[in-house]
Every structure is written in C-alpha cells, then in structure tokens.
Amino acid sequence: MAQELIKGRVIDDVTEEPIPGVIVTVVGLDFDAETDAQGYFVISGNVPVGDQKLSIIFNGYYTKIIPIVVSLEQVVNIDPLYLVQDNAEVSQSQGVISLTENDLADDENAANNISGLLQATRDQFLRAAAFDFSSTFFRPRGLNSEDGKVIINGLEMNKQFSGRPQWSNWGGLNDLQRNQVFTMGLQPADVTFGGYGGVQSIDMRASQQRPGTQISYASSNRSYQGRFMASYRSGLLESGWSYAISASRRAGDEGYFDATLYDANSIGLSVEKKLNDSHSINFTGMYAANRRGRRTAVTQEIVDLKGVEYNPLWGFQNNQQRNSRIREIDEPILMLNHYWDVTDKFRINTNVGYQFGKIGNTRIDNGGTTLREVNGQFSFEGGARNPNPDYYQNLPSYFLRNGSEPIDFQYAYQAEQAFINDGQLDWNALYEANRVTASQGDNALYVIQEDRIDDDQLQANILFSADISDNILFNGGVNYRNLKSENYALVQDELGGNGFLDIDFFSDESAAEVQDQLDAAQSDVNNPNRIVREGDRYKYNYDINAEVYSAFAQGQFKSKYIDYYVAGNVSRTSYQRDGKYENGNFIGNSFGKSEELDFTNFGVKGGATYKINGQNYIDANAAYMTRAPYIRNSFTNARQNNNTTTGLESERSYSGDLSYILRTPSLKMRLTGYYTQFLDGSDIGFYFTEDLTGLPIDDGAAFVQEVVTNIERRNVGVEMGVEYQMTPTFKLKGAAAIGQNTFTNNPDLYLTSDDFDGELRFGDGTVALEDYHVAGGPETALQLGFEYRDPEYWNVGVTANYFANGYIDVSNLRRSANFIQDYDAQVFNDYDPAVANELLRQEQFDDYLIWNAVGGKSWKIGDKYIGFFAVVNNIFDIEYKTGGFEQSRNSNFRSVRDDQNNPTEVFAPRYFFGNGATYYVNVYLRF
Prior knowledge:
Layout: E1 4-12, E2 23-26, E3 32-34, E4 40-44, E5 50-57, E6 64-70, E7 76-83, H1 87-104, H2 114-118, H3 124-131, E8 149-152, E9 155-156, E10 180-183, E11 199-202, E12 212-220, E13 226-233, E14 241-252, E15 262-274, E16 279-293, H4 300-306, E17 314-317, E18 320-323, E19 326-330, E20 333-341, E21 346-365, E22 369-374, E23 377-382, H5 396-400, H6 406-421, H7 427-439, E24 447-469, E25 472-493, E26 500-501, H8 514-520, E27 531-532, E28 537-558, E29 562-579, E30 592-593, E31 597-611, E32 616-627, E33 651-663, E34 667-689, E35 702-725, E36 730-743, E37 748-752, E38 780-789, E39 794-804, H9 833-839, E40 848-861, E41 864-873, E42 881-885, H10 893-900, E43 910-913, E44 918-926
Parallel strand pairs: 1-7, 8-11
Antiparallel strand pairs: 1-4, 2-3, 2-5, 5-6, 8-9, 10-11, 12-13, 12-44, 13-14, 14-15, 15-16, 16-19, 16-20, 17-18, 19-21, 20-21, 21-24, 22-23, 24-25, 25-28, 26-27, 28-29, 29-30, 29-31, 31-32, 32-33, 33-34, 34-35, 35-36, 35-37, 36-38, 38-39, 39-40, 40-41, 41-44, 42-43
C-alpha cells in the first residue's frame, strides 16, 4: 500500500521487446525492483526526495545509470527505458561452454566443466573462475561439478552415474541458452534445493527467447578448429505460438594436443503455444552428437622427449591420423513443459523429460587368443604385447633400470631415438598381426573395443511458486527420475582379423583343474568359447536400474534490514545391478540381479542477508546435507559381479560461509570465508599392481579394484572479487582464492580382484591419508586485470593470473600397511621410516603465471549487428601441470625406493599439462 514513487518499463533498444528480470536499484539506498514479464517495474516506499541515481542491470546488456528527481507530488515514470546489448559479454558467454566441454568433461576429472556451471554469473570472482581459472582445473571452494546442479527447463541434468553434468549433451546450442540464472553457493534457487556449488538454471522456453536471427563462425586451436552456428527465434507471435531453432557444426582434426579430433553436430528446437493468459505448453528437443579423440596423462620422461603436446594414443593409417581412443556421445533430450499461472501470485510448472542414447569409449584390446586341443586337452594360446607407444618397456628408463652395462645404454639410446623420431601407434603392425593369424586359421590378436553405456532416463517434476505477500516467497517441488543403463563391451573394429575369442586371457591360472581354468576364462559360461565379430557384445554385459524420488520446499522472507530463507529436501534413491553374463570367475554371483541398494537422504539449509545500508551487506549461509553414493561407487566391479561396496554409506556434509558485500556506483566487492566438511565418502579405482602382501611370493601381482570408504574431507578458505569503475569506460578488476582442501582422517581400504578370493585388507585396514591434500587443481588463484569498453562499441581486457598450491593425487595403496610389509606380512628388515617419509611426500606442483587477453568490436548497421570477439589465453606459452597421479604399479617400500633410485623412474607419476598459447575468434551477424 506504499506510495508509488518510481516506475517504468525496460525494453531492448533494437527489438523494442520487454526484458523481464532486470534489476532496478536506487543507487546507494535499499530500494530495488525487478521487471516483470512485460518489462514493468515499480519502486515504492520511503525513497528520499531529491536528486537520486537509478541503476539498471541485466546480464548481456550494458549497465545503465540515469539521474532522476524523486518527488512526493509526482511519480517518476520512465517508459520506455532502453538497454543496449553488451555484445562482448554475449560473445564471451557463448564461447565458454564450447571451449571447455572437451577439455574438462572427462570421466576421470571431477572438475568437469566448472566454467560452464559459472558462466552466467556477474560476480567478479566467479567470472574469473569461469573464464580465466578454468583452464587450470581450478575448483571454487575445492568443490566438484557434482556439488552443483544444472537445470534445463526445470529438469535436472546431472548424471545419476557420477552426479556430474554432461555438458556435451547440449554443446553447440549456446544461442538457445542465453537465458540463464546462476545461484551462488547455498543461496536459494527457485527450481531445486541445490548444492554447495550453486545452481545453473537454463531457460530454453521459446517465448522467452530474444527475437531475431544470428549467424556466427568461430575459429580456435584449443578444442576444435572451426565452428559454424545459426539460430532463429520468433518471439511471441500474435497467434500465441513462438519457436526457436539453432544448429551448429564444430570440427577439427586436432585441438591443442596431437590428434584430439573433434566432430560435433548439434540441433535444438523449442516450440511453445500460449493457450490463454494462464496456460502455456512448451516442447524442447536437443540433439548434440559429438565425437572426440582423447589424450592421456604422461610421465615427465615422455614430456622431455616429445613435449607437452604429445599424445601417444594415435598413429597414421593410410596417411591419416587415427586415434585409438575415441569418445562418442549421442544422447538426445526431449522435454515437455506446462506453465500454469493459477493467479498472479501462484504458479505451477509441470515438466517431463526423456533422454536416451549412448556414450562410447574405444580402446585397443590385445587379449586375442585361439582355443587349442592337444591330446584331448584344451588350452588358450595367444595374447599380444601392449601396442601403446608409451608402454613402459618402450622407454629409455626401462633399459636403464637396475643396470649399468654398456648394452643397457645402447638399448636405452635406441629406444630414445625410436621414441623421438616416431613414438606413435603402429596401426599397420596391428593389421599385419591379425592378417598372419587369419591366414593360419586363428582368431584375431587385436580388436577395437568400445565400452558402451546406453541410458534411458525418464524424469518428471512439478514445481510451484507462491507469492504469499510482497515480502514472502514460497517455492517447492517434487521430482521423479528413473534410469535403465545398459553397460557392455562391443567389438567395434576387427582390424582385419578373423573373429575374436570371448575369453579372459589373463584369467586365474592357479586353478587346480584344467576345466576350472577353462571356466574361469569365460566372459559368459552360458556361451563358452564364443567367437564374436564386429558389432557383437562381449567381455561384460549388465544393466543398472536406478530410481530417485525427491521433494524440496523453500521459504524466502524480506524485511527492511534482513532478508532470510530456510529450505529443506528429502529423497529416496535405489540401485540394482542385473547381470546378463555368468562370469567364469564369479559363477553364482554375476548373472541376474544383485541386492537392491536403498538410501534415504535429507538436507536443510538457511541463510540471511543483513542490509547495513544501501551499499554494505553481510551475508551468511549454512547447511547440513546427506547424499546417496553415486552408481560408480556402489558396485565394486560391476563389469564382472554383483558385489556391492562394503561399508557403503550416504555421504554426510555440513558447510557455512560468511560474506561482506560492498556495492557502490564505482566499486563492487565481495569477500567470503567458507568451511565445508564431508564425511562417509567413498571412491573406487582400477589398476594393475605388483608386490601385494599376503599372497604367494610369486603371485603378488593382480588387476585390482581399490575400494576406499569412510573418507573425510575438509575445504576451508577465503575468496574475493572486486571491480572498480575508474571511469565510465575503464574498469580495474581482481579476484583471489586461497584455500586448503585436505583429508581429515584415515579412511578404510580393501582390494578385490579375480586373481584372489574375497577382500584383501592390510594391517588395520586403513589408508594413512590424514593431512594429505585432495588433488584437483591449484588451491590458490589470484587475478589482476582491466577492461576498457569504448563508447564506439569496441573493448579490450587483459588479466594476469597466478596459480599455486596444486598437488598430485597420491597412491592410496602405498599409504596402507602393504607399503611396509613383505609377502609374508612381516615388516621389511631394511625398512627406514625416514626414507619412507620422503618417498611418500606428496608432490606439490610449481607456481605459474598466465596472461590472458580479450577484445572485440561491434557495428550497428540499421537494425543489424556485425561484430567479432577474440581471446588469447596463456599469451607467453607457459608450461604448467594441471594435475597428475602417482602410479600404484610399485606398491611397497622396496619397489618404490628402488625405482626412484633408478636414473629415470620407470613407473613415475603421470601428469596432465595445460594448454600453451591458444586463441578463440568469433565473428557474428545478428538481425
């Protein structure tokens, strides 16, 4: 009932269409408003009369500040109020997902495109994290991508297998995803309870798309070499229909790293019908098929010989580059959304989504054999040497290990020269080996194996929003997700061979009877000694069925001095494995359904913002949550058996943060301190190791599943973002993050394998990880830079970015009791604790400084915009490590000590290196 003092309508300066969601604020005072669907806003209350300034802010547009005179006798009415689109910001946000999805969306990398998650925000620190820090795998607050939520049209996009969003499912459709809202950290989001990493909500609703056509072309040397993109958006037509369509092509023979091909085609469609003033129905379809060549971590020895751009996974075939490890994602998404404005204060949104398709990862299978019969006795004959050029027996270090004879140096020199002069995969040798075996009537030695995941996921939810009063907003919703995931290996290419025998050549050779050996080798004893051809499933075949029911409720309250919120959620999650093969090593425990795993979880959070005045704010948030373990950590070896993880629990966590926020017309700053504790975490790893204690002296090697449970982690630190508008055209900006992410206990560890029975534990069954750093990018990131935006619509910016305190991912097995014990479980007689401490010291990566530059220019010609945007990252081509891990091949004191005493460590740590100097240029036409 307060008197209206200021009102108006915000519209686009080109299309003259209204812009909803614009924040309008009286500068320096605690009075603000947000534009509605028609672009209107109203500010009422005790606004001081006289000269004031009005700030108008919206993502993708230039911020506007205009003087006004407030009077009690007459309402200030600004209609229309034009906003000009910030083409540099639009171009930059359009490029970020495409540039990062290839680099960061790996299964092994928990960072998984943090930049994509943050790219819609205007907070200076988070913008630095998205655009400048992301290439180093920096993780804000030490969080992973599964700690945040990505929502499209009200539906959650995080995968149930890992909890991480698969950004490439909608890559290349940037033009339809401009309407984004990022909710930072624990702060309330309208569509979900959220997580510690915030919520990215993307609205692809057709009627909300800015009308017009856009065509663009981008060139880069980072992920792809070229991208063409076109889109058309109708806006809301008089008939009540609206539609938007976008298509793109991204391709390149390689990115920054050798033979990392990129081949992606995307198309998106959104169609909406406004039935009446209360009801609208929207359909959205996305199809973003993409293939890319992968790279792998390499040792320092390899980098010294071939450089950081080297990729061992490819070689020439018929004068064409061929990568042996191709990742292909082909998962269309269909959505149907109903929007119901029950009243002007109460809204219901009902959403249904269906996603299906495949994810495939290829590699060379060198385990090909032939079944022999001699005098009524059967055996398997064959198997081939590892063909990868970076195999440890191909490197100079292998010939110099534990020896100094002249012949050792000769072999090492020959290996060095061969690796320097070639060092790539020999495809011709693989085909020739298969040709020879085929001519002898034998099976293929090599095939290309594709590890496939075929998912079918149905989800539905109902969301509601109620404006109880001008100061109270209530949100809530219920959600259901159902997943059937088929997992199997596929023979993708026989490489000229004569079929492939579907057995495990490395199966248990200690079986007492010949028949036991024959059975143990079978991938499926129900179909023994099966010859598979191209397109056939083999090795493993199982389904995972998962269901999730969840609900959340949230209240937001505003008063003169304090805004606060409270929220809660509850969920029930269930998983079950359904094996299709009876594995020879796990007869009776591999075919059919496993036990069903059930988890019930909840979360509560709350926060408040204290408004000291119109420029100074104190913000605090806190939460306690439990979260079901993801599918990937629930079954110890789903490819072979039904075993579930022993000691598996829902992960518990609690967190709090406190911020000071300053907002003036020229200076904006946020300083935040945070603390997060995770409890009852779990993780599973797979690798080959040697020298396991408790096994026979000649049988200490095995391919194992390493299961770690009861993991406790703590993330603590401060972050700051600041920007100072020195002049209307020149802005200084800075960002800083100083944190520490460490393990706070000694978790439980055990191994499983088809090479030994049961669970193998060492000592007290724990791994000594307390006070080690959790690997995952640098813990310290600092930025200082500037932006210049000329009134003639050109801009330039430069940032200097400093990174420190990055750590390697340590070997858990080396930090268990296995490290100090001989094969008989007795402590080594030559064990030296001082030497051991040095061997187990966690490697800290070198600090480094990276300079980035951005710039662009746009021209308005009639009602058309033409422009370009360019960015150069790592201008001075600095070499740096983004991550790495210790190998667990050597697992005890003697083997690690002796290897590190070699001239060059044979099983040295493997590293990921960042890009050198890279560029991205985008030109566009919009009309």
